[in-house]
Design goal:
single chain; four-stranded antiparallel β-sheet; Dipeptide-binding Protein, domain 3; 3 domains; Dipeptide-binding Protein, domain 1; D-Maltodextrin-Binding Protein, domain 2; eleven-stranded mixed β-sheet; 25% helix; alpha+beta
């Protein structure tokens, strides 16, 4: 197994893809990276900012996802020993950034803490029964993970950035663990400068082999134009989420590289709001928004129109069952509180276009645009009738059934539409009980049809990644799950 480690790491990054290749000679340069979401909790793994640490190469999980299937990460192998029990073999020869070894006890400690975190990590939120989502105990060279209910896709769940394995030193504040010098990835997080930046150094003992860059100087910039300007001016080597409005003006030697993502932009309609609890008014919103060409206008053709939740990155979803549209009723001036966040430059533009379309359909519309932290604080509280969100279907588990259960199930932890349909839950439960990938996908399509027929959500566009890459920069990950960005191979020539 030790001889397989370099091959496993190489395979991971080949499967994830790279924007450009390069030799493996060590480079002394530090990478200058701009990310679009400023952290609010020091890159804690409990929440959306957990992915920032994985994109910077700081933290790793037991598994990784490639094309929606689990692959080895900090675990080299796993077996399901009963419907509610799995055993994972922990990768040998790995050390945390503070020098302490990765052991089965350390893995159990990290996962058990995550299982009782508040909020519970989304990837395991549907498992939270009888007070805990899972229980982990060391077992020789591995760990045994027990879930309260049968879970055929636990290896997928354990790829979540929120379930990254951190060393004991991370938990000085158990409610807000810190990955500073506590991860296992190719880069050591040495400092976080609030919500503005972070400093990282090369991990000289990385289990996956040599790390080319000497370190990373990261900046968190919500302003998309600032990220694009930095790429144009040569101030950044890598910048994520380049706004469509800026992409065309970035030219050689820099480039903007795109790849279809399992990520849709959609309007979630609150089924408990005073207005949109009415199915006829939800249908009126659907009819007002459906004709808009968001992909062609707001995204300037750098995205794909969305007829449903799953798009071109999930070709298996093309064989959909038919669905029935609910008839619309007149708006008659009904007031809708529409909200989105500013960290993705296209979303405020979509909000403007959507609001205009809704007004033409007879609605009165109030539009709110705030940063992501303020926006997320209001989700699910009833503060808004409709929210425009960019959502990845593979970020948490890579499993379509788990995604739909999280976003549209009665107990879903990410249910912005506050929808609850027992029949949809039954479809998801049936699909979730099988390990057969085709059967799970078929169940997901049936549930998707029910969600769309109920107008819980109006899909508008399927996104593509737009990563700015500076001239001479190689080895940047092309990852449709948006979990990886900077890899051991990333360097500036």
């Amino acid at each position: 197994m030790r001889r397989l480690v370099p091959a496993l790491v190489a395979a991971l990054f080949v499967l994830a893809g790279c924007f450009s290749g390069g030799d493996t000679a060590a480079a002394p340069d530090r990478l200058r990276v701009a990310l679009s979401f400023p952290p609010t909790s020091g890159l804690t793994p409990y929440g959306n900012e957990a992915v920032l640490a994985t994109r910077l190469g700081v933290t790793e999980a037991l598994t990784t996802l490639v094309d929606g299937e689990p692959r080895p990460g900090l675990a080299t192998a796993w077996t399901q020993t009963s419907p509610t029990t799995w055993r994972f073999t922990v990768r040998p020869g790995v050390a945390f950034h503070d020098g302490t070894p990765l052991t089965p006890a350390a893995v159990a400690n990290a996962l058990n803490r995550a299982a009782v975190a508040t909020p519970v990590p989304r990837a395991i939120s549907s498992l939270k029964k009888a007070g805990t989502a899972l229980a982990v105990v060391p077992d020789g060279d591995g760990v045994v993970v027990t879930t309260p209910v049968a879970d055929p896709v636990l290896p997928n769940r354990l790829a979540s950035p929120e379930l990254a394995i951190l060393g004991e030193g991370a938990y000085t504040d158990p409610a807000r663990p810190s990955p500073v010098r506590a991860g296992t990835g190719p880069f050591v997080l040495t400092a976080v400068q609030g919500s503005t930046g972070a400093t990282l150094d090369r991990n000289p003992t990385y289990w996956g082999g040599p790390v080319r860059a000497a370190g990373i100087d990261a900046r968190f910039l919500a302003d998309g134009a600032a990220r694009a300007n930095g790429i144009r001016a040569g101030e950044f080597d890598v910048a994520d989420a380049i706004p469509v409005s800026q992409a065309a003006s970035i030219s050689a030697p820099a480039q903007v590289v795109g790849v279809p993502l399992p990520r849709s932009v959609a309007v979630y309609l609150d089924q408990r709001s005073p207005v949109l609890a009415d199915p006829g008014l939800r249908a009126a919103v659907r009819d007002a928004l459906r004709p808009l060409d968001v992909a062609g206008t707001v995204y300037d053709g750098r995205a794909d129109p969305a007829a449903a939740l799953f798009g071109p990155a999930t070709p298996w979803a093309a064989a959909r069952p038919p669905r029935t549209d609910t008839p619309a009723t007149p708006a008659n001036g009904a007031r809708i509180r529409l909200a989105t966040y500013s960290n993705r430059a296209e979303l405020p533009e979509i909000a403007t276009a959507d609001a205009d379309a809704l007004r033409r359909a007879g609605f009165t519309v109030d539009v709110t645009v705030v940063d992501s932290a303020a926006f997320e604080a209001q989700l699910g509280t009833g503060a808004y009738d409709a929210v425009i969100v960019s959502r990845s279907q593979q970020l948490d588990t890579g499993d379509p059934v788990s995604y739909l259960a999280s976003d549209f199930g009665c107990a879903g932890g990410y249910n912005w539409a506050r929808s609850c349909d027992p029949a949809t839950d039954a479809v998801l439960a049936q699909g979730g009980a099988t390990t057969d990938v085709a059967a799970r996908r078929q169940a997901a399509l049936q549930a998707e049809a029910r969600v769309l027929s109920a107008d819980a959500v109006v899909p508008q566009v399927t996104e593509r990644a737009r990563v700015g890459v500076g001239g001479g920069v190689t080895g940047v990950a092309e990852d449709p799950t948006e979990v990886a960005l900077i890899t051991p191979a990333t360097a500036r020539s």
